[in-house]
Amino acid sequence: MEIEAARILENLANELAKIRPMGNAQILFYAEAGDNWSGGSIFYERGGQVQFEGPSNDIFILVEDLWFEAPSDKKWRGITIFVDGDEFRTEFDYGEGWSEEEDEGDRRIPIVRAHFGDKPIYYPPIEGLEPWD
């Protein structure tokens, strides 16, 4: 199981590295997962701001595969992957101290700030929808 999880993590990091808009830009991926669901966000620095990008279906499938590989007594709720050059770092969050009043968006902002500081975060408009005020 650990070998399969390591292979999935490496594939995730490789998929994330393909997203880099230029050179070896750092990429932060935060996701949450559970039984048959996952959600996540990708962030990277671009032009003095932090750019948001939604993950591909391939990335969501890898996240769910990774969650299913975890033994039942070690199921994580959140994962952070930070890709910097040819290296990546992974942290699992098991949900200790999570408030049921928070959602994934509430939990990811402090993680983005810890990696990229107070730079503004740009969320591109969703195609076909009016921008939010």
Secondary structure blueprint with pairings:
Blueprint (H helix, E strand, L loop, with lengths): L1 H16 L9 E8 L2 E10 L2 E5 L3 H13 L8 E7 L2 E7 L10 H13 L4 E2 L11
Parallel strand pairs: 3-6
Antiparallel strand pairs: 1-2, 1-4, 2-3, 4-5
Describe the protein's architecture and organization:
This protein is α+β, with helices and mostly antiparallel strands and 133 residues long. It has helices at 2-17, 57-69, 104-116, and strands at 27-34, 37-46, 49-53, 78-84, 87-93, 121-122. The protein has a 6-stranded mixed beta sheet, sandwiched between helices. β4 (78-84) and β5 form a beta hairpin. α1 (2-17) runs antiparallel to α2. The longest helix is centred in the first third of the chain and has 16 residues, at 2-17. It is globular and about 40 Å long.
Using DSSP, what is the number of strands? 6
Relative strand content:
25-35%
Distance between the termini: 47 Å
Put simply, the count of helices is: 3
- Helix fraction bin: 25-40%
Mean of pLDDT:
88
Helix-strand makeup class: alpha+beta
Shape: globular
| Alpha-carbon Rg, integer | 15 Å
Biggest pleated sheet: 6 strands, mixed
Strand order in space, largest sheet: 5-4-1-2-3-6
Element order, helices and strands? HEEEHEEHE
Q: Which residues form runs of ≥5 with pLDDT under 50?
A: none
